[in-house]
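Can't attach files on this board, so I'm pasting raw text. These are the components:
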Amino acid sequence: MNPQSQKAIVQVTRRFSASAERVFDAWLDPNTVGKWLFATPTGKMSKIKIDARVGGSYLIVECREGIDVEHIGEYLEIDRPRRLVFTLKVPKYSEENTKVTIEIRALESGCELTLTHEGVLSDYIASTTSGWKMILGQLAATL
Amino acid sequence: MTSASSHYQLTWVALADPTRRSILERLSHGEARVTELARPYAMSLNAVSKHIRVLERAGLIRRRRDGRDHFLSFNPDPLTSAAAWIAAQRSLWMSRLDALDALLQAEDAATPKTSRRKDKSR
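---
Top answer:
C-alpha coordinates for the assembled complex are below.
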Protein backbone atom coordinates (compact mmCIF):
# COMPACT_ATOMS: atom_id res chain seq x y z
CA MET A 1 0.00 0.00 0.00
CA ASN A 2 1.16 3.49 -0.76
CA PRO A 3 2.86 4.99 2.32
CA GLN A 4 0.85 8.16 1.75
CA SER A 5 -2.37 6.30 2.47
CA GLN A 6 -3.48 6.88 5.99
CA LYS A 7 -6.44 6.12 8.14
CA ALA A 8 -8.72 9.05 8.71
CA ILE A 9 -11.15 9.35 11.57
CA VAL A 10 -13.93 11.87 11.37
CA GLN A 11 -16.04 12.50 14.44
CA VAL A 12 -19.03 14.73 14.94
CA THR A 13 -21.36 15.22 17.88
CA ARG A 14 -24.83 16.68 17.75
CA ARG A 15 -27.74 17.10 20.11
CA PHE A 16 -31.32 16.32 19.17
CA SER A 17 -34.50 17.35 20.91
CA ALA A 18 -36.07 14.05 19.80
CA SER A 19 -35.67 10.94 21.94
CA ALA A 20 -32.76 8.52 21.52
CA GLU A 21 -35.19 5.89 20.16
CA ARG A 22 -36.54 8.16 17.44
CA VAL A 23 -33.08 9.29 16.39
CA PHE A 24 -31.86 5.68 16.37
CA ASP A 25 -34.80 4.42 14.35
CA ALA A 26 -34.30 7.14 11.74
CA TRP A 27 -31.14 5.28 10.64
CA LEU A 28 -32.89 2.01 9.97
CA ASP A 29 -36.43 2.88 8.88
CA PRO A 30 -36.53 2.76 5.06
CA ASN A 31 -39.29 5.38 4.99
CA THR A 32 -37.19 7.84 6.98
CA VAL A 33 -33.68 7.12 5.72
CA GLY A 34 -34.55 8.17 2.18
CA LYS A 35 -35.56 11.60 3.38
CA TRP A 36 -32.28 12.59 4.98
CA LEU A 37 -29.31 10.22 5.13
CA PHE A 38 -27.90 10.32 1.63
CA ALA A 39 -30.66 12.49 0.26
CA THR A 40 -29.99 15.66 -1.65
CA PRO A 41 -32.64 18.24 -2.61
CA THR A 42 -32.03 17.90 -6.32
CA GLY A 43 -31.55 14.14 -6.26
CA LYS A 44 -34.24 11.52 -6.35
CA MET A 45 -34.15 8.41 -4.18
CA SER A 46 -34.44 5.50 -6.54
CA LYS A 47 -33.89 2.51 -4.28
CA ILE A 48 -33.82 1.85 -0.56
CA LYS A 49 -33.28 -1.64 0.77
CA ILE A 50 -32.58 -2.11 4.44
CA ASP A 51 -32.11 -5.46 6.13
CA ALA A 52 -31.85 -4.17 9.69
CA ARG A 53 -30.12 -7.04 11.45
CA VAL A 54 -26.52 -7.78 12.31
CA GLY A 55 -24.95 -9.14 9.14
CA GLY A 56 -27.78 -7.66 7.07
CA SER A 57 -26.99 -5.21 4.32
CA TYR A 58 -28.40 -1.99 2.99
CA LEU A 59 -28.53 -0.31 -0.36
CA ILE A 60 -29.48 3.31 -0.74
CA VAL A 61 -29.47 4.64 -4.28
CA GLU A 62 -30.09 8.23 -5.18
CA CYS A 63 -30.26 9.48 -8.72
CA ARG A 64 -28.24 12.69 -9.00
CA GLU A 65 -28.33 14.51 -12.33
CA GLY A 66 -29.15 11.30 -14.12
CA ILE A 67 -26.47 9.26 -12.37
CA ASP A 68 -27.30 6.61 -9.79
CA VAL A 69 -25.16 7.00 -6.68
CA GLU A 70 -25.13 3.83 -4.61
CA HIS A 71 -24.42 3.73 -0.90
CA ILE A 72 -23.91 0.18 0.26
CA GLY A 73 -22.88 -1.51 3.46
CA GLU A 74 -23.52 -4.03 6.17
CA TYR A 75 -24.73 -3.70 9.74
CA LEU A 76 -22.09 -4.83 12.21
CA GLU A 77 -23.77 -3.91 15.51
CA ILE A 78 -27.35 -2.95 16.30
CA ASP A 79 -28.06 -2.07 19.91
CA ARG A 80 -31.19 0.07 20.01
CA PRO A 81 -31.12 2.91 20.96
CA ARG A 82 -27.50 3.18 22.03
CA ARG A 83 -25.22 1.97 19.32
CA LEU A 84 -25.23 1.26 15.61
CA VAL A 85 -22.20 0.24 13.56
CA PHE A 86 -22.22 -0.25 9.82
CA THR A 87 -19.85 -0.30 6.89
CA LEU A 88 -20.23 2.24 4.12
CA LYS A 89 -19.01 2.19 0.58
CA VAL A 90 -19.86 4.56 -2.26
CA PRO A 91 -18.52 2.73 -5.34
CA LYS A 92 -19.06 5.73 -7.60
CA TYR A 93 -16.37 7.58 -5.67
CA SER A 94 -14.24 4.94 -4.02
CA GLU A 95 -13.94 1.21 -3.55
CA GLU A 96 -12.81 1.76 0.02
CA ASN A 97 -14.98 0.20 2.67
CA THR A 98 -15.35 2.61 5.57
CA LYS A 99 -16.93 2.14 8.98
CA VAL A 100 -19.51 4.33 10.66
CA THR A 101 -20.24 4.09 14.39
CA ILE A 102 -23.24 5.87 15.85
CA GLU A 103 -23.46 6.26 19.62
CA ILE A 104 -26.54 7.81 21.14
CA ARG A 105 -26.73 8.98 24.72
CA ALA A 106 -30.13 9.80 26.15
CA LEU A 107 -30.30 13.17 27.87
CA GLU A 108 -32.92 14.49 30.28
CA SER A 109 -34.55 15.95 27.23
CA GLY A 110 -33.60 14.60 23.83
CA CYS A 111 -30.28 12.94 23.15
CA GLU A 112 -26.72 13.40 22.00
CA LEU A 113 -25.38 11.55 19.00
CA THR A 114 -21.72 10.95 18.31
CA LEU A 115 -20.78 9.72 14.88
CA THR A 116 -17.38 8.28 14.10
CA HIS A 117 -16.48 7.60 10.50
CA GLU A 118 -13.30 5.62 9.98
CA GLY A 119 -11.87 5.17 6.57
CA VAL A 120 -8.77 5.02 4.55
CA LEU A 121 -7.69 8.42 3.46
CA SER A 122 -6.65 7.48 -0.03
CA ASP A 123 -3.71 9.39 -1.36
CA TYR A 124 -5.67 10.30 -4.45
CA ILE A 125 -8.23 12.00 -2.26
CA ALA A 126 -5.59 13.78 -0.21
CA SER A 127 -3.46 15.05 -3.01
CA THR A 128 -5.30 15.34 -6.28
CA THR A 129 -7.89 17.62 -7.74
CA SER A 130 -10.05 14.74 -8.90
CA GLY A 131 -10.40 13.53 -5.33
CA TRP A 132 -11.46 16.99 -4.33
CA LYS A 133 -13.98 17.24 -7.11
CA MET A 134 -15.52 14.12 -5.62
CA ILE A 135 -15.66 15.51 -2.09
CA LEU A 136 -17.00 18.85 -3.28
CA GLY A 137 -19.60 17.09 -5.36
CA GLN A 138 -20.80 15.28 -2.29
CA LEU A 139 -20.72 18.42 -0.17
CA ALA A 140 -22.55 20.49 -2.71
CA ALA A 141 -25.12 17.75 -3.01
CA THR A 142 -25.92 18.05 0.67
CA LEU A 143 -27.46 21.49 0.30
CA MET B 1 1.19 36.52 8.87
CA THR B 2 -1.13 33.62 8.40
CA SER B 3 -0.56 30.72 10.71
CA ALA B 4 -1.45 27.22 9.63
CA SER B 5 -4.37 27.09 12.05
CA SER B 6 -5.95 30.36 10.95
CA HIS B 7 -5.58 29.31 7.34
CA TYR B 8 -7.28 26.06 8.21
CA GLN B 9 -10.00 28.10 9.91
CA LEU B 10 -10.60 30.11 6.73
CA THR B 11 -10.94 26.91 4.72
CA TRP B 12 -13.32 25.51 7.29
CA VAL B 13 -15.50 28.63 7.34
CA ALA B 14 -15.52 28.75 3.55
CA LEU B 15 -16.68 25.14 3.30
CA ALA B 16 -19.29 25.46 6.05
CA ASP B 17 -21.84 27.11 3.78
CA PRO B 18 -23.88 25.09 1.27
CA THR B 19 -23.97 27.85 -1.36
CA ARG B 20 -20.20 28.18 -1.24
CA ARG B 21 -19.76 24.44 -1.51
CA SER B 22 -21.96 24.34 -4.55
CA ILE B 23 -20.07 27.28 -6.12
CA LEU B 24 -16.83 25.33 -5.67
CA GLU B 25 -18.40 22.24 -7.06
CA ARG B 26 -19.37 24.13 -10.23
CA LEU B 27 -15.90 25.62 -10.55
CA SER B 28 -14.30 22.23 -10.15
CA HIS B 29 -15.70 21.48 -13.62
CA GLY B 30 -13.97 24.51 -15.11
CA GLU B 31 -13.55 28.27 -15.15
CA ALA B 32 -16.64 30.49 -15.06
CA ARG B 33 -17.64 34.14 -15.10
CA VAL B 34 -19.14 35.62 -11.94
CA THR B 35 -22.45 36.19 -13.70
CA GLU B 36 -22.57 32.59 -14.93
CA LEU B 37 -21.89 31.36 -11.42
CA ALA B 38 -24.60 33.50 -9.91
CA ARG B 39 -27.33 32.46 -12.36
CA PRO B 40 -28.62 29.26 -10.70
CA TYR B 41 -29.00 30.84 -7.28
CA ALA B 42 -32.11 32.50 -5.95
CA MET B 43 -30.10 35.40 -4.55
CA SER B 44 -28.72 38.70 -5.75
CA LEU B 45 -25.46 38.96 -7.65
CA ASN B 46 -24.20 40.94 -4.69
CA ALA B 47 -24.95 38.11 -2.28
CA VAL B 48 -23.20 35.61 -4.52
CA SER B 49 -20.23 37.98 -4.80
CA LYS B 50 -19.93 37.97 -1.02
CA HIS B 51 -19.72 34.19 -1.03
CA ILE B 52 -17.10 34.38 -3.75
CA ARG B 53 -15.03 36.78 -1.67
CA VAL B 54 -15.06 34.38 1.29
CA LEU B 55 -13.84 31.62 -1.02
CA GLU B 56 -11.14 33.90 -2.44
CA ARG B 57 -9.92 34.78 1.06
CA ALA B 58 -9.62 31.07 1.81
CA GLY B 59 -7.60 30.71 -1.39
CA LEU B 60 -10.12 28.28 -2.84
CA ILE B 61 -10.91 30.50 -5.82
CA ARG B 62 -8.55 32.22 -8.24
CA ARG B 63 -9.62 35.26 -10.23
CA ARG B 64 -8.40 36.10 -13.71
CA ARG B 65 -9.23 39.33 -15.50
CA ASP B 66 -9.68 39.59 -19.23
CA GLY B 67 -10.81 43.07 -20.12
CA ARG B 68 -14.04 43.64 -18.23
CA ASP B 69 -14.61 39.97 -17.63
CA HIS B 70 -13.61 38.30 -14.42
CA PHE B 71 -13.06 34.58 -14.65
CA LEU B 72 -13.05 32.43 -11.56
CA SER B 73 -11.45 29.04 -11.14
CA PHE B 74 -11.16 26.46 -8.40
CA ASN B 75 -7.88 26.14 -6.55
CA PRO B 76 -7.71 22.89 -4.57
CA ASP B 77 -4.38 23.67 -2.88
CA PRO B 78 -5.85 24.66 0.51
CA LEU B 79 -7.72 21.38 0.55
CA THR B 80 -4.85 19.06 -0.06
CA SER B 81 -4.02 18.37 3.54
CA ALA B 82 -5.53 15.50 5.46
CA ALA B 83 -6.89 17.95 8.02
CA ALA B 84 -8.88 19.71 5.34
CA TRP B 85 -10.22 16.42 4.03
CA ILE B 86 -11.40 15.57 7.50
CA ALA B 87 -12.92 19.04 7.86
CA ALA B 88 -14.89 18.51 4.66
CA GLN B 89 -16.11 15.09 5.78
CA ARG B 90 -17.15 16.50 9.16
CA SER B 91 -19.04 19.23 7.43
CA LEU B 92 -20.77 16.65 5.24
CA TRP B 93 -21.90 14.59 8.24
CA MET B 94 -23.03 17.70 10.10
CA SER B 95 -25.21 18.60 7.11
CA ARG B 96 -26.77 15.13 7.19
CA LEU B 97 -27.43 15.31 10.92
CA ASP B 98 -28.93 18.77 10.46
CA ALA B 99 -31.24 17.24 7.87
CA LEU B 100 -32.21 14.49 10.32
CA ASP B 101 -32.96 17.01 13.06
CA ALA B 102 -35.04 19.12 10.67
CA LEU B 103 -36.97 16.02 9.63
CA LEU B 104 -37.74 14.97 13.22
CA GLN B 105 -38.78 18.49 14.12
CA ALA B 106 -41.03 18.66 11.07
CA GLU B 107 -42.65 15.40 12.20
CA ASP B 108 -43.28 16.94 15.63
CA ALA B 109 -44.81 20.02 14.06
CA ALA B 110 -47.08 17.88 11.87
CA THR B 111 -48.41 15.90 14.85
CA PRO B 112 -48.98 18.42 17.63
CA LYS B 113 -49.51 16.78 20.99
CA THR B 114 -50.86 19.93 22.60
CA SER B 115 -52.67 22.99 21.39
CA ARG B 116 -49.82 25.20 22.49
CA ARG B 117 -49.39 26.61 19.02
CA LYS B 118 -52.94 27.84 18.85
CA ASP B 119 -52.72 29.36 22.32
CA LYS B 120 -49.56 31.18 21.38
CA SER B 121 -51.10 32.88 18.40
CA ARG B 122 -53.81 34.43 20.48
